[in-house]
Batch of 2 targets.
Target 1
Amino acid sequence: MATREYNIVVLGAGGVGKSALTVQFSQGVFLDSYDPTIEDSYRRQIDVDGRSCMLEILDTAGVEQFTAMRELYIKSGQGFLLVYSVTDRASLQELIKLRDQVCRIKDSKNVPIVLVGNKADLAHARTVSFQEAKTLAQNWGTSSFYETSARTAAHVDDVFADIVRQIQRRESASSSSTAATFPVPPTPSSSSSYSSNGHGRNPSASEKHGHGHSYSISALSDKRSSGKRNSGRNSDLPVSKGGFEPKKKKKTGGLCVIL
Amino acid sequence: MATAAQHASSPVHSPVPSVASRPTSRYGSGQTQHRSSRHSAAAYSISLTASVDDSDIDDDLARAQARLRELKAKISAQSKENFLLERDVRNLDSRIALLIENKLASEESEPIGITNEAREGSLPDRRKLDFYSNLFFILQTEPQYIATLCTLLSMSEMDSFLQTVMFTIYGNQYEQREENLLLSMFQSVLAYQFESTTEFSSLLRANTPVSRLMTTYTRRGPGQSYLKSALADQINYVNDHADVNLEINPLKIYDEVFQDALQAAHGDLSAVGIPRVVSSEVAAANERVREIMRPRVELVQKITGSFFAKITSSLHLVPYGIRWICKQIRALTRRRYPATEESAVCSLIGAFFFLRFINPAIVSPHSYMLVERQPGERPRRTLILVAKILQALANDPAYAKEPYMLSFAGFVDDNKAQMNKFLNDLCEVPDFHESLEFDSYVALSKTNLELSITINEILSMHQLLEKHSHALSSDKRSRLNVILRDLGQAPPVLPRKDNITIALPLFSRFQSEIEEQGQKLDITAIDLLLTEAKSVVVQILRSVPDSHAIAHRPLDLKLIAQFAASDPSDQSIGLKGLRLLSLSEDLFIHYETIIREEARSPKTSQDEEDQIDYEVRARSWQLFEDMIVTLSSEIEDELAQLGSLREKVASDISSLESVLATISEHNVYLKGQLASYNSYLTNVRLQSGAQKSTLADRRGGGLLDLHGKSSKTQKSQLLGPYKFTTQAMQKEGVIAVYNVPEQRVRNLYFMVHSSMPGSFTIGLHYKGKSSTLIELNLKLDDLLEMLRSEIHLLDLEYVKIYVPKMLEFLQKQFKRR
């Protein structure tokens, strides 16, 4: 099967954990030192719904002085992770403008975007509620919203799988010719996973399970126990956990169950 | 540098005795008197300082001081010329804006005529304007209000607020007084930021009011010209080598290798022999990749080295304000987090200087006007690598992110010490509070302070102050609150078309008093006390010979204060000594208040109360003593920079010479800007479909005139001439008044043609006469400008034209598509 490349750009304010999130995803480690990003790129191959996908991830500067470079990033990206910190209200507000900018440059309201609330493990410092950000995502016409913790790796993989699916869906919807480059058309089972996974086709379903909707924040600090606790409740969610490369997930095996 | 660091981090080596052992009771007698006479004392000390400047202490010094005065005079003159040029530039700028606005408005097919009714009542009346004059005087001279607002506003309110603050209230970037006031506002905001941040690691990291302030500040003229001198050559060098590929990410190099192999195999994937996609480890281990990578890494290091060398050698060109901010960051870090390692302090300075100032300009030089257009892909990548390595140098790198950056670990290690030295050197600038204090008195006596400000800037500021008046000043009798009360409720802002720029004179009706800074802003009260104490000690020490007992290191602040307070030979020193004693008392009281706040609990017995009281005093005392240690070492640093008065004068001369050079450079820059604005204006005129006059020439606005530049395009653009009768013009409302006998009116007619978009020639003719009675060349922006300045009638000798209708008429008749 041919491996497709996906250009993903990570955007958001300074200090929200864009790099931590990206490095957690691509290298399976948590960065805890302050090293402001100017522009970094990462690559990781994952399977999404049985397809091999090469993710080319561009991690960008959050420091506002570098915003002149954004336009270029947005032009080159196919999908965007808009990251804020649940401990910093202003960082969520910044995303509103950022999303406008993405839509304007892409000249579309339907750009693949995932809203990501990072630092969900810092329960004591939280200032943005889950519901508030979820409402914002719904206003944007997407249910692709996750709260993540780069520290515990909670939901980090889900975010990237979601953006890949969005790009795939957009491409197959916009041009039939792309089918030629995808040797494996969506199977009935994988397409059903879209709707039950709440990727826009079935908003009410997504509302119900909502990514992260049912997890408790305290559970994030100990993913093993929370994984157990939540696995029964969420076992109906078709998370493609087998798709991720196991060798990179040494620290976080079995984690994806917490939804 | 090293000594400074040692003093700060190891107080053991500087066992400075206390200034006062029981401050609350010790200076009881006479204290009240000091407090009430504080202002006059300060004023007095200023007059003495001035007289010291003039006295002939020694001939060299006197000559040097004469040279200093001469320089100051030259700088003032040159600044004034620059100011006029800047005003012209702004004028042109606003004309361009008018044209663009008008174009937008007429595209939306709205009537452009600005009627009298729309203006009616939109301007605040005279009385209110006087209040606003007072209000903005207070805002400008008492920066703590703006500082407090910075911490209260939302990010969305921030932008237009900062616009007003940076470019209007403190808009005069080359005037020392405004600059110093702006910087002390900065200091308050920084201090607040340090106070409200609980964790060292998150300091100055997120996008906050402070970072926004920093961006806006570094974007001002001096910062931009520094970037140009420090970076332009190197950036252009990289940019000119557009073909040089210095990608060093093994994955990307592997892609190149693969593409080459694919090409060699004529596109036959199966013949390539290496996999298309590999992990970064495999890519980095690939022999060919390593071969390509090695020389590139070397070259990138060389280029980065040349950037770094240029930056370090341009230390003296860094604008004072930016260095001063670095200094504040260092001082605040040492005060708040005394245990911080030197390298962490440096990385915080680097987080401002490199992350927020230098590196953004390196990675997007076009948006800082260092190059003309966005660099191509390859130079852009090289510049990003340079910035990344500089960032790693300024901030202890972890290399945990992109593994290939480890290639530069050797380079970073080799240059780390020099980087830290540079960052510390940046902080080595003198404080300005002395001159600020002086300036604030001068400002009171100045009569010609004024701001060029739009009505809406005034009204928006009023709204913000109204919204936050409680947080700004709880004292109902404070000057701010008195004025806000006089002003009444803030009116809504005006529609854009009514928003005009006015010259708002600044004056204070509270002539006699200068409020103390410390009392007004609790968030930085302690820092302001410390700053003043520092400046007083420095003044005392500079007035005695270096060999004097009180000047011995380590400094003994108690000794200094007592010596000065009891010095009968010099009254100004005596006053300073007393001031220092009172400052140290205030400082202790502040600490005590803070500790007591923390210790307060509602129900305690008398015994417990006593016990708590004792503990509070003990802890406050400890805090106070620690601070004295820090303060002493800061003062030693300060003195090391100042040297003796003579050295000071010498260094002032050289710095003023460089100021003069900068101002002269700026003068050249402004003239260039004026020229390019002029040609831009011509362009905009061409595009905006209506016309204008050369009234500017008539009015002698002092603008360089480049109108001639457009003559090439003239022929193809010609519309008309068209003939219009006076009746037709009257019907359109264009003619307001006839200055000729009625029977002759019918013989008058107009010939109007447009030689190019935005430019109209209007001729007034009399039937049967071959020559034109009067001809006027009108440009669109002239008309718009007249409207903005509420000039509604244009006198053509025989007739008076009603400008708004004229504008409508011309736009209708000469609509170009």
Note: Residues 156-174 of chain A form the longest helix (19 residues).
Target 2
Amino acid sequence: MYPVEENGGYSVVHLTGEVDLNCSPEARKVILECLRRNTPLLIDLSAVTHIDSSGIASLVEGYQVSRTLKLDFGLVGVSERAMSVLRLARLDQVFPIFASIEERLKPDPSQDV
Amino acid sequence: MNTAEQHSLRDPVIEVDGLVACYGSRKILDDVSFDVRSGEIMVIMGGSGSGKSTLLRHMLALNRAVSGSIRVFGLEMGGVSSRELHQLRQRMGVSFQNGALFNSLNVEDNVIFPLREHTVLDDNTMRIMARMKLEVVNMAGFEKLMPAQLSGGMAKRTALARAIVMDPKLLFFDEPSAGLDPVVSADLDELILRLRDAMDVSIVVVTHELDSAFRIADRILVLDKGKVLIIGTVDEVKNSDNERVQNLLNRRSEDVIVDPDEYMQRLTDELIGL
């Protein structure tokens, strides 16, 4: 079971270890359950050692659901290895990607009045 | 340290030792030994009838060796059980020369096929995985086409998408450039290199296309009449002073030396009353 925490109005799903054919169904389940609660979502990949196409597919499905629900969504802590898998399918140009949870949560100066 | 030297430090994913293969009484492979290292692109070259397709079939456990051994991911292929072979094939992808697509399935369902066979993933996950791989091979937007509607290059790219849909750690290509124009062929080579780098996959390519081999290979194995003529980096093969290697590189045909006894044996083997 992947841990989920609430932080700054976001649900943060911490994926860990190998997210492969065996584990991606669980990752998908946790991601979709969070979105059913109608909260914006961050997926923390910083503790992921390997993510395969089934894991990436779970992220794609989660992102599409969040877009349908108009909920904010982002990936954080994406390793270079995971990034190369995203790049291969050009998904690095699709997902909102942030260096860390803190970077995503920090106030956007452009929103200041 | 160059790429080939870096790979030489990695674990072997394929180890072939003293392989002998025959069709009937005819020896096709004779004492073939080599290995393929993790993350390496090994290109197997040779003229028609050199034994390269037979070697590929043995590495895929489609044929049994007469003698010698083949180990894939440490598993001896000669004594492998059907269950072990099934598990092994989940880690291997194959892109056959003719594509070998199912004519009754559209492009997307062809690519999904291995996932349906080997996994119990949700249908949405399988469809996204297949479409991602079609994006990778530049086949996005053609999901619903049937194989009969595809050009040769499109069929090969679809076959490649199917070969990589399970994220294999070992990928085989049988004549990837055959029948393709030079631009499409170069695109496919570029794709093979990108796949290796992004997926850290070991790749074995069987081809007789020199340009393609030189573009993608970390090492090249040249087969001639069932024997290994040379194994080396692109430069080592290019600079080889072996006459037969140079004949192959320069596409010069060789004079055939006839052994009268062998020739007569071939012509009259198994005939009755002679």
Note: Residues 26-47+55-104 of chain A form a domain with the Transcription Regulator spoIIAA fold (CATH 3.30.750.24).
